């Protein structure tokens, strides 16, 4: 599966802001079968802090919606359960597990209320999503090295353009 630009945004944040030593995209459970159909959009590993980041990324710029608000919440909850199961099975050596949901445009109301009830999942949506991109923009303006992330490289180019 191709990596979505939204996944590269999250990967850049994990690598450059959170200090992850390794970031992988579209991670599937080893062994295939039905369990292998569950995909983790972005996984970041910080070996110094023994922190694993497991991220679901939905980049719907017209607003998060699958079929209806209830279905949207149900899908996110299911993906969160997959994150937890994956980390318990494959990331036992990491003492910290951060489960995250990233989306730039989420309608305020039912969906945001339900997501706020998921105490084990960090919700990076709307203004918080924008704040994380601003952190990357500020870093891009100060750096020129190739971080091997296409989204971050684009930010660097934009921040260093001249008249």
Distinctive features:
163 residues, alpha/beta, 5-stranded mixed beta sheet, globular
Secondary structure elements and pairings:
Layout: H1 5-16, E1 22-28, E2 39-46, E3 51-57, H2 69-90, E4 96-103, H3 110-116, E5 121-125, H4 126-142, H5 150-160
Parallel strand pairs: 3-4, 4-5
Antiparallel strand pairs: 1-2, 2-3
Helix pairs in contact: 1-4, 2-3, 4-5
Short description:
The protein has 163 residues and is α/β, with parallel strands linked by helices. The chain has 5 helices and 5 strands; from the N terminus they run H-E-E-E-H-E-H-E-H-H.
Structural account:
The protein is α/β, with parallel strands linked by helices and 163 residues long. Helix content is 42%, strand content 21%. The protein is built from five helices and five strands, in the order αβββαβαβαα. A five-stranded mixed β-sheet has the order 1-2-3-4-5, sandwiched between helices. Helix 3 links the parallel strand 4 and strand 5. Helix 1 (5-16) crosses helix 4 (126-142), helix 2 runs parallel beside helix 3 and helix 4 (126-142) packs across helix 5 (150-160). It is globular, with a radius of gyration of 16 Å.
């Amino acid at each position: 599966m191709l990596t979505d630009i939204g996944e590269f945004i999250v990967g850049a944040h994990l690598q450059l802001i959170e200090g992850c030593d390794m970031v992988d995209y579209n991670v599937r459970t080893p062994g295939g079968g039905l369990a292998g159909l569950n995909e983790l959009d972005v996984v970041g590993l910080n070996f110094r802090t023994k922190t694993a980041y497991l991220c679901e990324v939905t980049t719907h710029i017209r607003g998060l919606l699958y079929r209806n608000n209830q279905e949207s919440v149900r899908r996110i909850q299911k993906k969160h359960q997959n994150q937890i199961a994956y980390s318990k099975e494959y990331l036992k050596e990491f003492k910290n597990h951060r489960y995250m949901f990233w989306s730039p445009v989420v309608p305020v109301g039912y969906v945001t209320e339900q997501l706020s009830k998921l105490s084990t999942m960090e919700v990076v949506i709307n203004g918080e999503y924008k704040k994380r991109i601003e952190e990357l923009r500020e870093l891009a303006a100060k750096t020129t090295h190739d971080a091997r992330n296409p989204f971050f490289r684009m930010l660097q180019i934009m921040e260093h353009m001249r008249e």
